[in-house]
Amino acid sequence: MERQAAALSQCLDQKALVFMTAARNSSEAYWDAAQSDNMRFHFHPAAIVYAQSAGDVQAAVACGAQYGVAVAARSGGHSFVGHGSGGQDGSLVVDVGQLADVRLEGDVAHVEPGARLGDVVKALWAQGRRAMPHGTCPPVGVGGHALCGGFGPTSRRWGMTADNIVAADVVLANSTLVRASATENAELWWALRGAGAYFGIVTRFEFSTYDASPPGVFIEYRWSPSLRSPADLTRLVEAVQDFALDARLPPELGFHLQFQAPTPNDPRGGVVSVHLRGIYGGALGAYTPQWERLLAALRSRNAPPPDVRTEREMSFLALMEEWDDFGQAGNKLDTQAERLAHNNFVSRTSLSLGQQALSRNALNPVFETIWRRASQHREQLGQGWMWNVYMEMFGGGAGNARHAAPDMVAQSALPHRDGTWLVQSTVGTAGTQHLGGAARETLDELDAVFQQALRSDGIGRAGFACYAEATLPADQWRSLYYGDNAPRLERLKRQLDAGNVFRNPQSMLVDGAQPAKAADIYIAHPLP
Questions:
Q1: What DSSP assignment string belongs to 228-276?
Q2: Range of 181's domain?
Q3: Where residue 135 sits, what CATH number does that domain have?
Q4: What domain count does the chain have?
Q5: Is the N or C terminus of the chain more exposed, i.e. has fewer CB atoms within 10 Å?
Q6: What is the pTM (predicted TM-score) of this model?
């Protein structure tokens, strides 16, 4: 292993690359360079190359392939399980963070993989009042985000980030640079749109963009003291399902529900806090009938109206600024500031398949569990950890979401598009603190009760590649993420990367996959 690392280092040196290793740099510098966003999954790479050009990426991949070292690309380092740092010790990390140019040509955005989502928003707005669909957090790098899917509040309207990849320049395992599009290397282009990290390192994307000059509406409804029992939570979600699964839900509206213990920003006196946050692509007057439909659904289910109601018309740029729920107010798109803070969490995800509401009998145990866990909030804070549950409206509108359209499905490696709820349960703490047994038990219970709800209603379950889970065995994650597309992806992998150069513990080659991490392992490498 030491001989391999020395040979790799010599190869990188000979190619005049900028890189770091544990042997040639201080422990502190190497530690900082190796960090992922999620400190729960920290690894020790063999080397970290800082690419200044596509040629640097080619040279780094050539060295990794020559010496049998796993190669991983890192755009922003926000993989849930540290795949940007290899997902394991000993990988060659090719950091493309300095390849961050964003340039608009007509309605096509030329975006390098290290550009952060917040920077893409600002650049496309400044250059032409244009936009593209993407997820929530501004410091996330567009490279990894686009290649695993990229679902967000405008996806029902414009599709996922992956769906809007017009073309890409890709460094393959043999270190050649090729272009992939619907007419050039079309099978690779298909794979990039949802499973791209297994096939190469993208050095430049071309994305479709959309007119963002008209105003939109930021929507936020908060419930807390009006929710007096778990049954109230069930009735609330039943009402939201009635509202969302109606054919009158327009694709211009995207939203999610968040469940957690009350925060200082919530009205006082509640046990559980529920936030419905959304974005509507249109004027406030055009949105008002949707609010009236939601209110009618709440009344029909005997669910309370929100304790706090916010609907504000604003520019698309202001919408994106407001949408981020993590940054500092007034400058949430400052990706330099946000990327300095690291997270520390573990998540589990379920996508409910089909346009089907969860029944009351299925929902009751879910919200009895959430109510009980929220009642223990003070004890959890005392132990230094928190939990939350997101339910993203993935479908709705009688299947009118753009990302679920047949052309989008056919041209993407992600097959699971016909769904209703994308549910994410998370436990987390701060910095390098430990997530103890109580946190693990909470996550296990939240995940189990949602999965049981799906089973009890006969609803199929899928996963989502952008929300990777380290504990899934190979036969599960391949099916949950890629379904019937998995064999096609493996065939392409054997054609383009038979040596499995681009690999992590979730390998696209069946014979290269590693055993899943044990369910009780919530940290992949000791923290200091």
A1: -SHHHHHHHHHHHHHHHHSTTS-TTEEEEEEEES--TTSPTT-SSEEEE
A2: 102-212
A3: 3.30.465.10
A4: 2
A5: C
A6: 0.96
